[in-house]
User: Fold this.
Amino acid sequence: MDETRTVLRRSLAPATADGAAFVVTVVEGPDRGASVRIDGSRPGRLLVGQSPACELKLRDPHVSRRHLAFELEGDRVRMNDLGSTNGTTVNEIQVVEAYLRGGEIVHVGETGLRVDPVTAAPTQLSPAMRFGRVVGASPEMRRIYPLCEKIAQSTVPVVIEGETGTGKELLAEALHECGPRASGPFVVFDCTAVPPSLAESTLFGHERGAFTGAVSARKGVFELAHNGTLFIDEIGDLDLTLQPKLLRAIERSEVQRVGSEKWMKVNVRIISATRRDLDHEIQAGRFRDDLFFRLAVTRIELPPLRRRHGDIGALARHFFRQLGGDDRPFPAELLARFEVYDWPGNVRELHNAVARFLAVGDVGIAGLAESTGAYAPVASGAPPPPAMRSGARDPIEDVLGQDLPFPRARETLMEEFERRYVERVLAKYQGNVGRAAAASGIARRYFQMIRSRSVK
Assistant:
């Protein structure tokens, strides 16, 4: 049994999801008679609105593109208005969020929706505890895995939605690695990391002399991803002037380098990710709806860590072992504080919290408590980090002896941890960044960012 399975086995959810189920029926408005079911087999939220991304698509012109969302929670339905223009009422009371148990009438625009409970047998959950390098045994994640498996085997475009730090890039890599293009390249284009003036040449490439500084011809990410996957991160931040050019490249499977008159055929699968609500961006005029239709053939919504019931402890233990915690038990007091924290930075924040604890012990946790108010230092009897055992030189004392301000001292310790960690894992895998990142449980690009910061 592998390490991840051993760590997650303790908190594995039951094999079946809650047996509660509901049917949402349109009882008033242009789509009267339409209905959709909410049960434990559905991954993520059920969206209602005019957008093609909605499971219950309405023609009512007074309904927003993504007007509201329904989600099963135990034996009730959680309903959220998604910032709609005209609001949502439940039994004639305007609400932003409400829990429904059945029999309520929800009004959106000129459409009435009735929520009714129905009898349902327990839904079988996937037995998987991970998809590729995406780890999680909560019911919320195990509902997603069958969908991920199907999407991985296809070549259709997919949009991954979720808050910052939920693991969208890691899931994109997993979809690539578990699919038919696994032997091809996986190329990342981050819309937030490339200046607008360079975005077009980064996407499509440029010829020598195309602009000042173009001293040689260069391939764009479409060419680099030929016969593989192009992951466009934070697609919602792509400059509006570039969106029609991206749409053309996707529709025609060809690109034109800046400064060239030649068109080149490319064969790439597009996976996009966004922390934004693209339907709201379309309504605000910041995103083209025709590009959205091309990108969102399928969609996956990654739940935030606070809603992944049981995964906080499982992931903390997983990262603890992965980052060098050896066979020591994860400190119970620290785990208890982790469990009650909301984790606004999601899985990425949890990974960094565990890494910080392993690197600097109580000092790192004290820093987290100061910056977030989430948890205080662990008990002084907690096991020391590896660098403090067997008479090894204590890096914490070295930094404390420099009398640095607290933020700088904490930053110095984290830099030292990152440098040592990257050196060790790269040495283990003979300098292979892809294998080192996979063993670290983080996306390749994030690993490379850490590596570049660690190089002096």
In short: The two ends are 39 Å apart (CA to CA). Confidence is low (pLDDT under 50) at residues 369-392.
